[in-house]
UniProtKB/TrEMBL annotation:
Any one GO molecular function term: DNA binding
Keyword DNA-binding belongs to the record: yes
Any coiled-coil regions, as ranges: none
Natural source organism: Halomarina oriensis
Lineage, uppermost ranks: Archaea, Methanobacteriati, Methanobacteriota, Stenosarchaea group, Halobacteria
Ranges for domain SpoVT-AbrB: 8-53
Taxonomy, superkingdom: Archaea
GO annotation terms (biological process): intracellular phosphate ion homeostasis; negative regulation of phosphate metabolic process
InterPro entries xref list: PhoU, PhoU-like_sf, PhoU_dom, SpoVT-AbrB_dom
Keywords, in A-Z order: DNA-binding
UniProt entry tagged with the keyword ATP-binding: no
Name this protein carries in UniProt: AbrB/MazE/SpoVT family DNA-binding domain-containing protein
Length: 331
């Protein structure tokens, strides 16, 4: 750590010198322009950016299918605005995988293709991306998936179950976007200014988005189990629906606490949610014991459903914990 003494020039201007080593390493010299970003009681300084778009290149030789899709997602989340995918010859299978990956990501489009290259570009800038809107949408979709998955299970509705499975891509798309913005905020102070959210709050939202993404995954799992199961006994159906109601309430209240601006209200909601999780865990065990009395195969599959609902409530508890940290006094 280095320290500098603040001086006054011209009677009203505060000045401070930059460490020479840092200036040299970052190409700062007389006449260079730097950027300042206020963040509460801190002031962040960076060299002025010269490029509006961050470009990256990846050799996709011998990469295809799911691995290639994952590579595209990784570069997107890492913050590349332009992604060049190169190989001696791009195969038809690779092009399909690249396009499928782009469809799963917010703002990413194929803007150029040759026999050796596919170019992708993020057509949105950070100021157009809202983490708050993203997690609010994730909340709605994930909880509707959970509710519809149980409805499909109870009513033996395979069409509805299949629809729930398909909707998981919508939640994943929002999750990747949230991760991209979060990593950008960590890497570049200007991104935090553009999105209008402090980095610490952005971390809280990113952490909670991860919990919602897991809720959607469990809703998908329940829907897939519903496709395997036929009609289930009324007593088991009623108990599972009751567990769904309690789990959903935990997640809803936790998200209300996370998005609440008043610290006292948020703390009260989050603490109530944390206490509620223990009750849901106890009821989960009761429902699990109930389904164990059924036919062995049916009991096994319904046990997985009950476990997913219980885990979803636990994820709501994790969101409530994050809400408590967000509402706590800052040191």
């Amino acid at each position: 750590m280095e320290t500098r003494k603040v001086q006054v020039t011209g009677g009203s201007t505060y000045t401070v010198s930059l460490p020479k080593t840092w200036a040299t390493d970052n190409g700062i010299s007389a006449g260079s322009v730097v950027e300042f970003y206020p963040e509460e009681d801190s002031l962040l300084l960076t060299p002025q950016g010269e490029e509006d778009r961050t470009e990256g290149t990846l050799d996709i030789t011998d990469i295809e299918g799911e691995q290639l899709m994952r590579a595209v997602v990784t570069m997107y989340v890492s913050g590349f605005d332009i992604i060049n995918l190169e190989t001696a010859r791009v195969t038809a299978a690779q092009r399909r995988a690249i396009r499928e990956a782009a469809q799963r990501l917010v703002g990413l489009e194929v803007i150029g293709e040759t026999g050796e290259t596919v170019i992708l570009q993020d057509l949105l800038d950070s100021s157009e991306l809202s983490i708050v809107n993203a997690i609010t949408r994730m909340r709605l979709v994930a909880l509707s998936m959970l509710s519809d998955a149980i409805t499909a299970l109870v009513e033996d509705d395979d069409d509805l179950a299949s629809d729930v499975v398909e909707r998981d891509d919508d939640v994943d798309r929002l999750w990747y976007m949230t991760s991209r913005v979060f990593r950008g905020v960590l890497r570049d102070p200007s991104t935090a200014t553009e999105v209008g959210i402090a980095r610490e709050v952005c971390f809280d939202y990113h952490t909670s988005a991860r919990q919602l993404e897991r809720v959607a995954d469990h809703a998908t799992k329940i829907a897939e189990l519903a496709l395997e199961l036929d009609e289930i006994p009324d007593e088991a159906a009623e108990s599972i629906q009751s567990l769904l109601s309690q789990s959903t309430e935990v997640i809803e209240t936790a998200m209300d606490a996370l998005l609440e601006d008043e610290s006292d209200v948020a703390t009260q909601q989050a603490n109530a949610t944390r206490r509620r999780v223990d009750d849901v865990d106890e009821f989960t065990r009761e429902v699990d014991n109930l389904v164990r009395e059924l036919d062995p195969q049916q009991a096994q599959l319904l046990g997985l459903v009950v476990d997913s609902l219980g885990r979803s409530a636990d994820y709501g508890g994790n969101i409530a914990e994050t809400a408590l940290q967000k509402a706590a006094p800052k040191p």
